[in-house]
Amino acid sequence: MPPKTIQGRRDARWGCVAWTAPLLIGVALVSYFFWPFRFSGRSICDTCAMTQRKQLYQLPLGFISWRTVYQPEQHTLLSQFLTESGAVGPHPHTWVFIQGAGNGIM
Ligand SMILES: [Zn+2]
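Above are the sequence and the zinc ion SMILES. Below is the predicted complex in structure-token form.
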């Protein structure tokens, strides 16, 4: 039963806002940390053979990503050899996708 006074209606409105805002923030936090629709992929630099992993947080069964997390670059045996022997110097990495799965893609 709705409140009959103006003050009662205002209180009811603020009560609704007081419950809705924490609920929306809670849903956003849960989605941010436990989002199940992720695509994980790995890329390799075509110059030095280092690899890099990334994780895309996507809409369910879609390709639109709303967040991308890059993990630090990792050496491979080949990239270690190329770097230590001096065959490859400092350069901007050129990442080429090599493998990935998730969010409906196996
Ligand atoms: Zn590179």
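The first helix runs from residue 6 to 34.
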